[in-house]
Each structure stands twice: as structure tokens, then as C-alpha cells.
Amino acid sequence: MTRFTASCLSLAALGLIAHGCSAPPPRLNTAWAQRARTVQSDALGAEKPRPPVAEWGPGGDREEDELADLDEETGLGDVVVRLGRGRWLLEERVLLRGATSVVVEGEGPHRTRLELDTKTVGALMVEGARRVELRGLTVVGLSGGGITLKDCPDVRVDDVHFAGARFGLELVGSTAEVGTSVFVGCERGVSLRQEARLAVRESAFVDCWQGIAGDGAVEATACAFVDSHRDAIDVRLGRRDALTSLLFAGERQRAWRGSPGTVRALLLPIGELTKLEDRRPHRELVRREEFPDALREGAPPGFDIAGVHLALLRAESRGKKDPPRHVRDEALEQAERHAAAARDALRGGDVARARGSALIALRYCGPGPLGDDVPDAVRDVAELAMP
To answer: How far apart are CA 114 and CA 196, in angstroms?
Structure first.
């Protein structure tokens, strides 16, 4: 029995193969998926794609080789896949089972591109790892594939772009926190199965068939859902679920199903807005271009303008020469504008409004101490934002 055949049989037993190993490539052949795949930054360089390399094993006896199936009850230890600048290609499905933790990290979505070109939908599968971290890369589903995490109780995804996949990230009985990420041109940005739990923040779902879909719990904060072809969130939401400070824009998409326990500070098209029993905490968004500076009714009370705007900027900067610099420059420009508004409000005696604008200005600058590039106007009003 070959390693490939054995791998197929073990994965089939897990219920993770939908079409079998001999199925034709499940490429997502839509114009929007193809468009998402083709976007890449000049920062990648011109080298041909290389196979990823992993290291694993106990601390005193680490091994290193091309990324392939690793399936052991004990002994895998921490599996680390470090991807440097450039393109990386996975052509055979990989199952990682029995690891203590799995880390896949790149040098940023504009510099590191992992292309999944396997014959089946699930290209990289991790089962049973206590902790999984994905950060700093773009994951492209050339054959439609994505990343599946099964029975992983602590998943962290930060600064990852998923493009053109049938599902970007599939959570099967796993619990994940996803932040500052982008899902573009996917059939499902995040797919939930077997009561998976997802907390997602400051992320953008753009031009997907469905942003988030399946069976599980969802907590979404400061995210944007733009031009979904069907549903932004296709999960039967209930009392445990929370939607806070979200932007929904697009003529085709439906916002969500069910009755979330928390629905607060949303920007919605009028058709979706009228479905709410109480529309007062929310505002209408007629066109995406109105956000953030030309909202007809203003932002909803408590809406995280900076968090949602930064999520959109990350999506819109894909393919630029230096996307992080583009996002940072726009963020600082917005910070300076809100700082000026805070100063004007203070001069007019409206302390509450001044403090609100100062908070937005600092939010655009990011967490932690103010950097050297922060405008003086922001520094001048920083004390207003103190509790």
C-alpha cells in the first residue's frame, strides 16, 4: 500500500473526504474565485514555488523535511512550518495528527503565498492538536482546497488571507479566534462543522459565496461582509451568538439567519435593516463607498469605525507593492482627521464628542504606545481618551 493510498483511507475514516482520492480536482471555477487567486504583490518575488518544509519531534531530537503526512499518537511534539518570502506549493494532501501544537507562519500575506493544489478539497488537515497558530501568509486554493482543523481546542489565526478556496478555513469541532484576516473569493470563507466555535474580529469577507457558514457558534466583532453572492453568515444563530459592530454591503447577500443573542451597532442595507424589530441601534448603508466618511445617518452608537475600516483596507490593499504601508498611511490620515474633530469639539465645549473622536483617532493608530509616525494632532488629544 502506498503512503498516498494509506493517507486516503485514514482520512476517509475521519469523514474528511467528500469525493474520494480519485476524484477530479475540485477547482472553484468562478470568475470571482479566479480573480481572487490572481492577486499578488510584487513583494513575493519571481522565484518558482517551493515545497514547504516542516520541523517536528521532541525538543532534543527534532526532525526536518518537506511537509508531508505526520500521523503518530506520540512523538510529534510541536510541528512548525516556517515559510519565508515567496511562493510555496502543496501538491499532495497533508494530514498532521498527534502533534502537541502546529504553527504555520509566513512573513506577511504580501510576502508569503501558500498555494494549495491537491486533488481533493481538504489540502492541509490538522487533527487533535491542542494549539494551532496560522499567521502572516496568504493561502490560495488553486484546486479549491483549504485548511481543515479537527478537534483542536485552541486555534489562533492572525493576519492570514484566504483566496479562491471552496472553504478558506474549515473548523470541525474546533474553537478558533480569527483576527485581522481576509477571506476573498471563497465558496465559504469559514466553514463550521460539528459544533465548532468561532470568534472573529477585524476581518473582511469579500466576494465570497458565503462568508461564514455551517453548524456552530459565532461571535463576530468589527468585521465587514461585502458582496457575498448568497449569505454573509449562513449559520442558525441563537442566544449564544453575538454580532457587534459589523458592516454588511452588497445587493445580493443576505446578512444572517436566526436570532443572535446580541445584535449591536450594525451598518446594513435598508432591506436587511427593516427586518430588525428594533432598528434604532443600527444605521442604513446604501453604498459601500459611503463608509467611513460619508454615512448619511452617521455611524451607529458604539460602532468600531476604525476596526471595520482597517479590515476593509487590508482587503482592498491586496496586490499593492507594500500593503502594510498603504494601510498604515490611510490609518494615520484618518487618525489625524478624527484628532482634528476632537480638538474642534473640545473648543466648542462638547467634551463627550471630543473624547469619542479622540478614541477613534487612537484606535486607528493601533494598540500599545504611540509610534514615531503618529501625527502630533493625535498626541495632542490622546489624554482625552483616558478613562
So the answer is: 25
For the chain, give percent helix, strand, coil, nearest 5.
25, 40, 40
Separation in Å, CA 159 to CA 84, 139, 337: 15, 11, 26
Assign 356 to helix, strand or coil.
Answer: helix
| Residues 300-348: tens digit of each pLDDT | 999 999 999 999 999 999 999 899 999 999 999 999 999 999 999 999 9
Give the Cα separation of 155 and 346 in Å (integer): 43
Measured between alpha carbons, how far is 13 from 20 in angstroms, rounded to an integer? 11
Query: What sign does the dihedral 309-313-316-318 (CA atoms) show?
Result: negative
Contact (Cβ atoms closer than 8 angstroms) between residue 83 and residue 137? yes
Pairing type for strands 167-172 and 131-141 reads unpaired
Range scoring the smallest mean pLDDT among 115-119, 206-210, 262-266: 115-119
Distance from C-alpha of 104 to C-alpha of 81, rounded to nearest angstrom: 5
pLDDT band at 252 (very low <50, low <70, confident <90, very high): confident
Q: How wide is the angle at C-alpha 179 spanned by C-alphas 46 and 18, nearest 5°? A: 75
The predicted pLDDT at position 193 comes to: 96
Query: Does residue 18 surpass a pLDDT of 60?
Result: no
pLDDT one-digit tens code per residue, 104-119: 999 999 999 999 999 8
- Inter-CA distances, 188 with 88, 205, 231, Å: 23, 9, 10
Place of cell 515559510: 83
pLDDT at residue 2, as a whole number: 34
Q: Which 8-state DSSP code applies to residue 65?
A: E
Q: Which of helix, strand or coil describes residue 169?
A: strand
Amino acid at 113: R
Query: How much is the CA Rg of the chain, to the nearest whole Å?
Result: 22
Contact indicator for 293, 305 with CB cutoff of 8 Å: no
**Strand residues in 57-128 grouped as ranges (E):** 63-66, 70-71, 78-82, 86-90, 94-97, 101-105, 112-116, 122-127
104 vs 102: CA distance, rounded Å: 7
What sign for the dihedral angle of Cα 363, 364, 369, 370?
negative
Q: What is the DSSP letter of 22?
A: T
Cα–Cα distance measured from residue 123 to residue 106, given in angstroms and rounded to the nearest whole number? 18
Closest CA to 336 of 378, 384, 291: 378
pLDDT per residue as tens digits for the range 150-190: 999 999 999 999 999 999 999 999 999 999 999 999 999 99
